[in-house]
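Please predict the structure of the following assembly.
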Amino acid sequence: MTMRPVLLNSCATATTAAEARFRIDVPIEGRAGARVVALDDDAATIVRRLALQEWNGARFFTLVAGTGPGRNGVGDDPDEMPLHRTNGTDTRLADELMGADVAVMLATAGGGAAAAASAIGRACARRGIMTAGLVLGDRHEVGGVVVALRPYAQVLLVTADEQDVHEVLTALRA
Amino acid sequence: MLKQEINELLTQTGPGTPMGDLFRQYWIPALLAEELPENDCPQIRVKLLSERMIAFRDSEGRYGLIDEFCAHRGVSLWFGRNEEGGLRCAYHGWKFDVTGQAIEVPSESENGNFCEHVKLTSYPLVKIGDVLWTHMGDPDKRPPLPEFEFAQVAPEQTYISKRWQECNWLQAFEGGIDSSHVSWLHAGGLKNDPLFKGSKGNEYNLADFKPFFEVAEAEGGLFVGARRNAEADSYYWRITPWVMPSFTMIAPRADHPVHGHWWIPIDDENCWAYSFDYHPTRALTPTEVENMKAGHGVHSENIPGTYRPAANKDNDYLMDRDAQRRGEYFSGIRGIAIQDSSLQESMGPIVNRSKERLVSADAGIIKARQKLRKAALALREEGVVPPGVDPQHHRVRSAAVVLPRDESFIESSRDALTAAPGKPHATV
């Protein structure tokens, strides 16, 4: 038998502005597991700048300088992919993905993003970590980068506005 | 997550607010044409963007949208008489034309010029398609009339309805660019709704609950592409255009008509959801129109004589727990429109976005908010005309396509995403 709701439990009461005052007001815990990886030199400049700001536990990385697709340590095992922290120290992808719940890859038109995106995408897929790709630049100039990222980024945002990177990370409570 | 001050900026659309100024740059739906069906028909109250007005159609068929309250003593002109070329106040007989100009003040001398100096605020009201459109901004900066395809096709190819939604416009609109909820909330509709069911696209939709998303800039707003696995070497893309400030279209399914929405603020805690269906190349069938009127597809069954859905918060949206248990309706609520409005109204009149926990799949929503905020501030600080004002930006379509996996959904679908008379829509 279908029960009729009592008045205080009904949608008419529950959705009023007055009732909204009684929503539990404890802040939702911040995300502690965002990892932001720059896939090329221009993206690295942006990531270093972002890393100076206050975040909710996000960690920022650049690829190892002077290495490119096929030569950047990606190899067959993406877990071994080397990364630089923005303070200059070295780390590897597997260590940084521990405790992560989203990996954000940042790329620009100048990037040869395929190998690194593949490594990050495969490593995240193994662990069930969400991946997002932010591609900065005019859509006509970043087509190759978008194609390279597409298989590995569950969300791709192509934008000409650098401010979007900050906006997305803020919205994600990174 | 959104800071409270930004949430307020985006959700408040009254006079003098940044987002209110933004909305006042556009031609927006004010009424359905059916609400003023004939000359000298009864006038109706209209509230838009937190302004109360009266809409009427005079003896010559001219439409007017004027301040609701008489210039004399402030009584509502809803009680007045619509006759002989104007709206006459029931209190002392003052009469106003469709521009708000007083044309008779019985207590004053017939030969005097008193009337000339009395004029109510008024806005234009223009019929395009089955919609009466208004522009509530500066008349000197009035843009060309809108050119949305649903309002441009022949009358037999289009159908539009509206429903009152009891929450802020932004949370309603955000549902329109949030493709990921479709496989969940509307799963029943994909199988059963006569205006949705039976497409190959639905099979792809229901086989892949974890779509990938791409968000791309458009001149008038955004394109949000949701891709799911199709065949071994291809993806199924559903592409949603958003034209600023609040027009969206849903990707088509098979040869069904294509649908979409316009969300228009009534005030900060209520909005109108205009829902349309049209087919670009053929007349709607009698069965399709019957189904739309019955509340299938994106439409709602309304309380007769009103635009309030029959399933509303006062009756718990006619929640059917048995149907929910059977999987007929995922939320227990019948109908795609009410499935959306019930959940969006449950968020409260204006949801507190400082508490939300977005995920990367919400990138379309994040980007849309940013574009709205930037446009509102650019307008306020530099007078920049926002995207979506230019009628060129209105000529968009949604599309459903299957593409090779290495193809860009924007580049490959550019033609499909552009409206043109008589051109078939891209659908799966």
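The interface with chain A takes residues 1-2, 166-167, 210, 212-217, 269, 313-314, 316-317, 320-322, 342, 345-346, 348-350, 352, 355-363, 366-367, 369-370, 405-406, 408, 410-411 of chain B (CB under 8 Å). The radius of gyration of chain B is 22 Å.
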